[in-house]
Write a structure and sequence with these properties.
By secondary structure, this protein is mainly α. 58% of the residues lie in helices and 0% in strands.
């Protein structure tokens, strides 16, 4: 099974923020109440739940939000 693109994007954002804050995965895991392995999986888009993404994001000062998709402008020009 392939990892959804959105999950990879969220994971990359979590990793970038963690590095910006100069934290390692173990430190984030301790603060989020999870394991280093779970943080690693989240950063590669392979987390087992939205709750895990949210708890890591909260520790990093981020939020996870669901928003309507932006419409593809090129699709609107097609007949």
């Amino acid at each position: 099974m392939t990892t959804p693109t959105y999950a990879v994007g969220v994971g990359a954002r979590l990793r970038a923020q963690r590095k910006l804050l100069r934290l390692n995965q173990t430190e984030v895991a301790d603060l989020a109440g999870t394991t280093q392995r779970s943080v690693s999986q989240a950063e590669t888009g392979k987390a087992s739940s939205l709750e895990l993404y949210a708890s890591i994001a909260e520790v990093l000062g981020l939020e996870v939000a669901a928003r309507p998709r932006q419409r593809d402008a090129s699709a609107e020009t097609r007949p």
